[in-house]
Amino acid sequence: MTWLGKRRRPVSPSRLIVIGASAVVLACMLLYESPTGYSDYTERAHATVVDRVTSPRKHPAPDHVTVFVTYQAEGQEHRRVQLGGIAAGAYDEGDNLTVAYAPGRPSPVITLSSTRRRVHRMQFSAGLALLVVGAGSAARGLTRLRHRSR
């Protein structure tokens, strides 16, 4: 087989197995997290970002951002509570936002976009697709390895 005039070497069976196994592990993580969702986070509160902590990471990974909010929920003021959920690091100090929490448990809080079911369906679909691709890659690698040893 050629591509732009160069002969391509087939991927080694051991690499296929490692790539497939890694994909399966990642898929399992996605599938494990997807049903948890935040559908029970039905209560809302208005919050203000009071702190934003940035932890540098090695290049090329972006810095890790932790955001803390203050809000009033169930008759109590909650100060400097870590904001969780999707795109929590996108908020800056002084920003106002609506947060979600579970009834009777005003802490922890998450971003409102994390409560949408569509997000969790997409995560489940991606995990399922990755599981199929990973298992196929690992099976292909094992098949090649078995044929090579004959």
Describe this structure in words.
The chain has about 150 residues and is an alpha+beta fold. Helix content is about 35%, strand content about 35%. It contains two helices and seven strands. The protein has helices spanning about 15-35, 115-150; strands at about 1-5, 5, 45-55, 65-75, 75-85, 95-100, 105-110. The strands form two sheets. It has a five-stranded mixed β-barrel with strand order 3-4-5-7-6. The longest helix is centred in the C-terminal third of the chain and has 32 residues, at about 115-150. The model has no long low-confidence stretch (mean pLDDT about 85).
Oligomeric state, counting identical vs distinct chains: single chain
Shape: elongated
Strand content: 25-35%
Which structural class should the secondary elements be placed in?
A: alpha+beta
Low-confidence stretches: none
Annotation, overall tally of beta strands: 7
Distance between the termini: 24 Å
Provide the gyration radius in Å: 22 Å
Features:
single chain, 150 residues, alpha+beta, five-stranded mixed barrel, two-stranded antiparallel ribbon, 2 helices, 33% strand, elongated
